[in-house]
Design goal:
The complex is a heterodimer of chains A (about 325) and B (about 425). With about 325 residues, chain A is α/β, with parallel strands linked by helices. Chain A is built from 13 helices and nine strands. The longest helix of chain A has 19 residues. Chain B folds into two domains: about 110 residues, Urease, subunit C, domain 1, CATH 2.30.40; about 300 residues, Metal-dependent hydrolases (TIM Barrel). Chain B contains 14 helices and 19 strands. At the A-B interface, helix 4 of A face helix 6 of B. Bound molecules: zinc ion.
Chain lengths: ~325, ~425
């Protein structure tokens, strides 16, 4: 496959393995641009990218903005109220405004599942889901997969553990769809209150013991634990969570010796991941940030009709 | 004014009638039902090929007035009923103000009488303000015309309060209608908890949130000996408990909605907010179990839970949209096409679930074509195929998940107290 066919990128559930590979293959040459003295190519000159984040996330938004700038697009950040719908204008009115502005690409994060899908149906701009509720975060999963490909050569046949608050994680869901489509074996592990048994129906193995889950895996993707889970009664204490689930050096030894450690950031050091693991040789957490820009460049480029072979040349 | 409905298939389960007959109406009442009834000076309607049934009764409707006139009014809601072949509705009390006293009950009845499109039987609240703390003036509300009590939409969480309600309502032989939901277990969810909610990352409402409450209410009904009616049963487990309680002689009846009989949680993947209902659309297994419950008599009634909302309230993020869908104008074709034509119930069995059964539970007239009864009649064309189009609804609510569905078997005439109020889907103004 050489060309992207869809209007939007809303999630990995709907994508084929070929579409995922197209993005990952295009991200390689994009990453090379990042190491040039002048990090700018003119492929999206004259195009307008609007970012709209209903949940604050400087990391992801900046990553998209840089990706757009390196491709010479104009990027505009719409400051959205972070609270829910009662205040401010409805999503429908926002959509009509966006439509009138004539943005080429709309990048949207929202605390409600399906909000980018609603937007995609309503506006003619191309919509990229930068995270919707607990549903999907496709660009994060794609950058995780790109990092795995770089380090391991291929995803097929790998054994990947996803560790932490699976229930509330859109990163976990998108990773599960993407990794299983590309032929990895996925294990998810976390406390039972944060890991509904229905996950088994997604073709993954579920574990409550981190020791059992990470035995001989090639990759461990550690998720961020939100402190509010304890307040909601889903966990007795952060202390107990970290005793049972923190990825420590001792636990990491159970995985393959060259196992790769990923974390979507920002990290709670000492809670879900020990500092020495986060800073250790097996972690690729900073590289994930660089790769995030490359993958997002690839997505912007493909959505605007770019062709993988052009950029490779 | 006399009318003769000539040559239709008259199905009147209350009187065990199913055959080609004529129905003569005089002065708003049924004057004769039989073969070759003399027309005399009556206006004759040829209804050969059509099905003539007692006027359908929808015992679970939110008319929204007083207070939510932006969603629906008694006028628009009863017009939707007439257009949909429904001659009587029971209205739920969760309005602002709550129908928890005789004044609101009287207001609803007066408004409905003035409108004249369908009969409205108000359901009073169980507790003042439906807050679950103090019993409402149930005796006075009954005297003013309330036919049942319910805190629909706001379940009675306090078990002691539910016990008192059953005991107290029992004195008046009023059924207590339970919206069975344990709010803590429902955990502010907005769809069924299962595989689909897991992949969508939606907060789920587990089946046990309903079943735990059904279990409690069945125990209380057994203890008090009072009449309990379980609204909108949606899970296989709830159906099973009701079946078992009926065997033990508990005075319980139950209803199921057309949407729980025809849709599952798969529909939520569209993010169409009209699939957001409470109780939520469940799984295919539950749907099959509900059909079985309908067939073996566990579920006595089909009722719509008609819940209109303003367009802008539903045109938003799924998580924030209110629960509810409109049902009055799709009730008949869904029952005919998906229950009768699908082979689950005979015509006579299905008609009972929307006529004499709800009438019996609520203790209201209607649901019966006996001579001398009010001439409330629904005429259905079993051969008519049409597509559901929400823009043609008389209801102010356009929140239907059935938009675009092609269904066979539509109401073509509604008669209310001997007056033709709807013909060929259009109201007779
Ligand atoms: Zn209800």
């Amino acid at each position: 496959m050489i060309n992207w066919q869809r209007k939007d990128l809303l999630g990995l559930q709907d994508l084929t393995a070929d579409e995922i590979k197209l993005i990952l293959d295009t991200a390689g040459p994009m990453k090379e641009i990042l190491f040039r003295p002048i990090k700018k190519v003119p492929v999206l000159r004259g195009k307008t990218i609007v970012t709209m984040f209903y949940e604050p996330s400087t990391r992801t938004r900046t990553s998209f903005e840089l990706a757009g700038k390196y491709l010479s697009a104009d990027t505009v950040n719409l400051a959205m109220s972070t609270s829910s719908v009662q205040k401010g204008e409805s999503l429908k009115d926002t959509a009509l405004t966006i439509e009138a502005m004539g943005a080429d690409i709309l990048i949207m994060r929202h605390e409600a599942t399906g909000a980018p899908h609603f937007m995609a149906k309503t506006v003619s701009s191309r919509v990229i889901n930068a995270g919707d509720g607990m549903h999907e975060h496709p660009t994060q999963a794609l950058l995780d997969m790109f990092t795995i490909m770089e380090k391991k050569g291929s995803i097929e046949g790998l054994s990947v553990a996803i560790l932490g608050d699976i229930l509330h994680s859109r990163v976990a869901r998108s990773n599960i769809w993407g990794l299983t489509k590309l032929g990895a074996k996925v294990k998810v592990v976390g406390p039972r209150t944060l890991l509904p048994e229905q996950f088994r129906q997604l073709g993954v193995e579920t574990y409550y013991s981190v020791e059992e889950a990470i035995k001989d895996v090639d990759v461990i993707n550690v998720l961020r634990l939100q402190r509010e889970r304890q307040k909601k009664g889903l966990l007795p204490s952060m202390r107990e969570y970290s005793r049972l689930y923190c990825l420590t050096r001792e636990r990491l030894k159970l995985a393959k010796p060259d196992a790769l450690v990923l974390h979507p950031g920002p990290m709670n050091r000492g809670i879900e991941i020990a500092s020495d693991v986060a800073d250790g040789l097996q972690a690729a957490i900073e590289e994930q940030v660089t790769n995030g820009v490359a993958v997002r460049m690839a997505i912007l480029y493909l959505l605007m009709g770019g062709n993988r072979d052009e950029v490779a040349a | 004014m006399k009318l003769l409905l000539k040559g239709g298939r008259v199905i009147d389960p209350a009187n065990q009638i199913d055959g080609i007959m004529d129905v003569l109406i005089a002065e708003g009442k049924i004057a004769a039902v039989g073969q070759s009834v003399e027309a005399g000076d009556a206006q004759v309607y040829d209804v050969s090929g059509k099905v003539v049934t007692p006027g359908w009764i929808d015992m679970h409707v939110h008319l929204r007035e007083p207070g939510f006139e932006g969603k629906e009014t008694i006028w628009t809601g009863t017009r939707a009923a007439a257009a949909g072949g429904v001659t009587a509705v029971a209205s739920m009390p969760n309005t602002p103000p709550v129908a928890d006293n005789q004044s609101v009950i009287r207001f609803i009845r007066d408004k409905a009488r003035e409108a004249g499109w369908a009969k409205v039987y108000p359901i009073g609240a169980i507790t003042k303000g439906s807050l679950g703390e103090e019993l409402a003036e149930i005796g006075e509300m009954q005297a003013a015309g309330a036919v049942a009590i319910s805190d629909d939409g706001k379940p009675v969480s306090n078990g002691q309060m539910m016990r008192l309600a059953l005991e107290y309502a029992g004195m008046f032989d009023l059924p207590v209608i339970s919206h069975a939901e344990d709010l803590k277990l429902a955990n502010e969810g907005y769809m069924h908890e299962g595989y689909i909610s897991t992949i969508l990352g939606f907060r789920g409402i587990p089946s046990v949130a309903e079943e735990a409450m059904v279990a409690r209410d069945l125990l209380l009904a057994a203890m008090t000996g009072s009449r309990l009616h379980i609204a909108h049963v949606s899970t296989a487990g709830a159906g099973e408990m009701i079946r078992e309680a009926k065997k033990r002689g508990v005075k319980v009846t139950a209803e199921v909605t057309p949407h729980h009989l025809t849709l599952t949680d798969e529909a939520v993947q569209s993010f169409d907010t009209s699939t957001k209902v409470n109780p939520p659309l469940r799984t295919e297994e539950d749907r099959q179990a509900l059909i079985k419950g309908l067939m073996d008599g566990t579920l006595d009634v089909i009722a719509t839970d008609h819940a209109p909302h303003a367009r802008e309230e539903k045109e938003m993020e799924f998580a924030y949209a209110p629960f509810g869908l409109v049902g009055l104008e799709t009730l008949v074709p869904l029952v005919v096409d998906r229950v009768i034509n699908a082979g689950h119930l005979t015509w006579s069995e299905a008609i009972a679930k929307v006529t004499c059964n709800p009438a019996g539970i609520l203790g209201v007239p209607g649901g019966n074509l006996g001579v001398g009864k009010a001439a409330d009649i629904t005429v259905i064309d079993p051969e008519k195929t049409a597509v559901v189009r929400k823009e043609s609804f008389y209801s102010m609510g356009k929140n239907t998940p059935f938009e675009g569905w092609e269904l066979k078997g539509w109401p073509v005439m509604t008669v209310l107290d001997g007056r033709v109020v709807m013909q060929e889907g259009r109201l007779v103004e």
